[in-house]
Amino acid sequence: MPDFPNCPACDSEYTYEDGSLLVCPECAHEWTVEAETENGDQKKVIKDANGNALNDGDTVTVIKDLKVKGSSSVLKMGTKVKSIRLVDGDHDIDCKIDGFGAMKLKSQFVKKV
């Protein structure tokens, strides 16, 4: 039995082939095999202020003073942030900073060490 990919709409594992299309019986979504391979190859690359690609676990440095929302404190330029985690969204770095706790940062305000 051929191993078909899960449905991109509902993630159902019960997809089947109908001619040149793949079909999901649970949500009735139809797509082509070519579309599946094109979408699967695209992964968002998050880059720092200098254009270097960032990865989970990297260490970065803050390049400008950042106001901390909901606090009167400021995250100073040159603060080193260890073990970052990349996430989707506007603030695409999730991290813990000593003295501040858990924070989300924008990749445009950091550089890779």
UniProtKB/TrEMBL annotation:
Domain Protein YjdM C-terminal stretches: 46-113
The organism's place on the tree of life at top rank: Bacteria
Domain Protein YjdM N-terminal, residue spans: 4-32
Family: Belongs to the YjdM family.
Record-given protein name: Zinc ribbon domain-containing protein YjdM
